[in-house]
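ENCODED BACKBONE
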Amino acid sequence: MLALRYVYVLALVIWLGGMIVLGALVAPTTFQILQTIEPATGRALAGDLFGATIARFHYIAYAAGGLLLVTLAAMAVLGPRPRAFAIRSALIGAMLLISLYSGFVVLGRIDAVQQEIGGLASRLPAGDARRTEFDALHRLSTNLMFVNMAGALVLLYWEAREP
């Protein structure tokens, strides 16, 4: 049981920690440094770099979410059922679905819009439909990550309450 709980907490911490590090450190630092070093192309390069990083991180999120579901189910089968098991399972399932949607649908559409534009969306006029769509997709991606971070914090709280 201890090993299952350890794997559960480890997967949760990797997922939550990854989201925090990407949003609070990697994204702003990448854009700041690359735009400073290369004012003309730094923003585009930072976008490409961070886009590739977030795409790879989604695979970590999928693995962590799957591992959370498997270990939580195993804890319920092999020992006393964890508190709020159904709610926790539903929350993990929802977080995993959000990650899948974000990784495959939202990021896929962001890539398609960028390919269509052939450059930075920020260089398009404010009223351009492609810029508007890119901005909306970027906000959606960010908001989905915030929802998953909130869910992970709730799961971490439940785990901290366990005896």
User: Anything to note?
Assistant: The chain has a mean pLDDT of 94. The radius of gyration is 19 Å.
